[in-house]
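Example record for the data management plan.
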Amino acid sequence: MALTYYFHPLASYCHKALIALYENDTAFEPHFLDLQDPEVRAAYARISPSGKMPVLRDDARDRTVSEATIIIEYLDLHYPGRTRFVPDDRDRALEVRARDRSFDLYIHEPMQAIVGDRIRPEAKRDPHGVDLARTKLRTACDQLERELTDGTLPGRPWLLGNDFTLADCAAAPALFYADKVQPLTDHPQVAAYLARLRARPSYARVLEEAQPYFHMFPG
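Corresponding structural encoding:
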């Protein structure tokens, strides 16, 4: 099979690109990674020297593609399907990419900082850093709530309207895990958007496959 996807079913950025693969029923070979295994980690280092996930290997084109956003754009370019993740219209494409970066930098990143602190030894935890991450996360969710409320963002059914895009792929795992560490109870529009994302067949499948691993999530 031409495409091999290296990932862990619990990893949030792995969810992001996996949604895109499932959206278009793209044929690929899933390669589960247990990076706690030294042999697996050593073998994977030859594919991804940074050790980061996910990675897409395309043997047909002899390309190794890292970073979830780039993987999705690569699929859109070389393995297009019924769902186009980045619009052809350049202004709209810029908006999609801007929203993708916003979810990664202002929701996904602080969420991961909070989770990462939970798995540190207690003596090495960083309460101040966690407070900063929570503030950053809350500020981003407040802004998203305002934009969904005042119509700056359609949010119905998807973030930018009728088309499911890269921005929605980014939003799904970012908001799903953010809700675990800082519940969206004060953000009803964001919570409703997350509910629609969770019901999307592609993300519902990702979550179903991750279910056996959720007990590993710290909190």
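Summary line stored alongside the record: The chain has two domains: 3-78, 90-200.
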